[in-house]
Amino acid sequence: LVMSNSISCKDCHAGWWSNKNDAKCIACETGKAGLSEMLNISHCVDCGEGKYSSNLGRGSCVECPAGYYRLASNTNTAACTACSTGKYQNLDGQSTICKDCPDGFYADRTNMIWCTPCPAGRVGASGNINRYEVTVACSLCAVGKFASRLGRNSSEGCIECPAGYYRSEDHANTTSCTACNVGKRQHQRGKVSCISCLAGFFM
Fold it and tell me: 101: buried, middle or exposed (CB in 10 Å: 19+, 13-18, 0-12)?
């Protein structure tokens, strides 16, 4: 409350507070809020976990946006923490550390709200790894195999080239296989080359 005249006092607005018998209200500092439902505000309160306040005189704290979080142990209530590379957060107001990118995805930037799928020609690398960049999180398909779809995980793996096709080390495009040339054949899957037709036969 502050003195408005010699007869009565007025309540401080939300986001402002005063000591007893003060002649003016004081703005809540960053990281705190003077909640609008609190009458006779004599102090401001810290923003709770998953929330922050970056401006003076706020009547309420703001939820951390997706891609960010704030732990209860984080005493900096004026800002939220960005998700690190390899992690994401798709929800607002989170108070726990961001989630790991799943197998078949990666995050090479901070404050990601979702992870990027492994590109075609690569599949998720197996094992408990930090999926912070594509070359670590996503493995290239081996010769004789390909991957045409985004976000394939390690259990799905790359696909063997079908019969009649091949992919060698010279074929850098790991998203597809090459058809056997005229006069050559390949009746097996997952091969790196085609073989010539027998004498008296053609394709």
Answer: buried
CA 197 to the chain's CA centroid: 52
pTM: 0.75
Residues whose CB falls within 8 Å of the CB of residue 139, separated by 6 or more in sequence, listed in order: 122, 123, 124, 125, 154
Beta-bridged to residue 24, according to DSSP, are none
pLDDT digits 0-9 by tens, 42-94: 678 888 889 988 888 787 888 999 999 998 888 788 889 999 999 999 999 99
Provide the 3-class DSSP secondary structure of residue 140. strand
| SS3 at position 136 | helix
Give dist(CA 114, CA 28) in Å, integer.
34
Residue-wise pLDDT tens digits, 181-190: 888 889 999 9
Pairing state of beta strands 178-179 and 165-166?
Answer: antiparallel
Residue 89 backbone dihedrals phi, psi, to 5 degrees: -150, 115
- What pLDDT, on a 0 to 100 scale, did the predictor assign at position 63? 93
In the chain, alpha helices (H): 134-137
For the chain, counts of helices (H) and of strands (E): 1, 22
How big is the chain, counted in residues? 203
